[in-house]
Amino acid sequence: MPNVIYDYGKCNGNASCAEVCPVNILEESENGRWCKPIDEKVENEEAVKQFHEEVEESETQLDVTIENDMPECIQCMACVASCPEDAIQIE
Ligand code: SF4
Ligand code: SF4
């Protein structure tokens, strides 16, 4: 299953990853400072939910990397190519 890995220590929140994803499984955080996989689209939702909440509530960049199992990811690598901070990996 595709693993979409976000490094929130690098993310600047410019939202280009969410804009280019052809299957719309990424979104801007509620506070507009981050992008992240849409919770409902993550297979291991419970495992990553606490980290997503932590990211949502933070006013500063967090030194945390979150691995998201995303069955709908087609591994097109568009998000990786669009990211100016090298903050996303797809495995
Ligand atoms: S690799 Fe493609 S399909 Fe997967 S999250 Fe990134 S942009 Fe979306
Ligand atoms: S493209 Fe990169 S820097 Fe921009 S919101 Fe997505 S992960 Fe963060």
TrEMBL record:
Coiled-coil stretches noted in the UniProt entry, renumbered to this chain: 41-68
GO function terms (MF aspect): oxidoreductase activity
4Fe-4S ferredoxin-type domain boundaries: 2-31, 64-91
Superkingdom of the source species: Archaea
Pfam families: Fer4_10
Keywords of this entry: Coiled coil
Protein name: 4Fe-4S ferredoxin-type domain-containing protein
Naturally occurring in which organism (per UniProt): candidate division MSBL1 archaeon SCGC-AAA261O19
